[in-house]
Amino acid sequence: NAGVMQNPRHLVRRRGQEARLRCSPMKGHSHVYWYRQLPEEGLKFMVYLQKENIIDESGMPKERFSAEFPKEGPSILRIQQVVRGDSAAYFCASSSGQLKGYGYTFGSGTRLTVV
Amino acid sequence: DAKTTQPPSMDCAEGRAANLPCNHSTISGNEYVYWYRQIHSQGPQYIIHGLKNNETNEMASLIITEDRKSSTLILPHATLRDTAVYYCIVSPQGAQKLVFGQGTRLTINP
Question: Of A30, A35, A57, B3, which is most buried by a Cβ count within 10 Å?
Answer without folding.
Answer: A35
